[in-house]
């Protein structure tokens, strides 16, 4: 595959996985928790700055995939997700990078064989592919990245 793909599990602790043109994969979790004396929009400015850093370090991103969540346990999580998704899609439009949301069940089914797999099962699936995710956010991003690599023509 001759492309650079970014996969994101959006949230306060955003999981990310980046497939480079040379086939290498980097992944991690980036925290965007609001700081004590920050205004409500600062987390999104830091998110945009982080996206710009990823793009600069990668030189080019061919496509962005993000976990498309339809339900959240709480209002705060739903608001945060909506903010991250809005900023991500606007950033992709500005950078002329195609983007696509992928339903959670689709990602889990591809990674584990079960659309309703739990966090531990997704982490185990990432480990079985040779990754060492430090949490479920990173594991979700890795699962999404492998879905994109194996099912999409980027």
TrEMBL record:
<dbReference type="GO" id="GO:0003676">
    <property type="term" value="F:nucleic acid binding"/>
</dbReference>
<protein>
    <recommendedName>
        <fullName>Bacteriophage-related protein</fullName>
    </recommendedName>
</protein>
<dbReference type="InterPro" id="IPR036397">
    <property type="entry name" value="RNaseH_sf"/>
</dbReference>
<dbReference type="InterPro" id="IPR012337">
    <property type="entry name" value="RNaseH-like_sf"/>
</dbReference>
């Amino acid at each position: 595959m001759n492309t650079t793909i970014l996969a994101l599990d959006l949230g306060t602790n955003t999981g990310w996985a980046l497939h480079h043109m040379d086939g290498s994969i980097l992944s991690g979790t980036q925290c965007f928790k609001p700081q004590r004396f920050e205004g409500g929009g600062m987390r999104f400015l830091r998110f945009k700055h982080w996206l710009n850093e990823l793009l600069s370090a990668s030189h080019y991103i061919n496509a962005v995939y993000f976990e498309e969540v339809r339900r959240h346990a709480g209002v705060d999580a739903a608001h945060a997700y909506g903010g991250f998704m809005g900023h991500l899609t606007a950033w992709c439009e500005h950078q002329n990078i195609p983007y696509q949301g992928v339903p959670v069940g689709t990602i889990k089914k591809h990674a584990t064989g079960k659309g309703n797999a739990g966090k531990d099962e997704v982490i185990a699936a990432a480990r079985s592919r040779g990754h060492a995710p430090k949490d479920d956010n990173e594991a979700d991003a890795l699962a999404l990245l492998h879905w994109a690599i194996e099912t999409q023509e980027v």
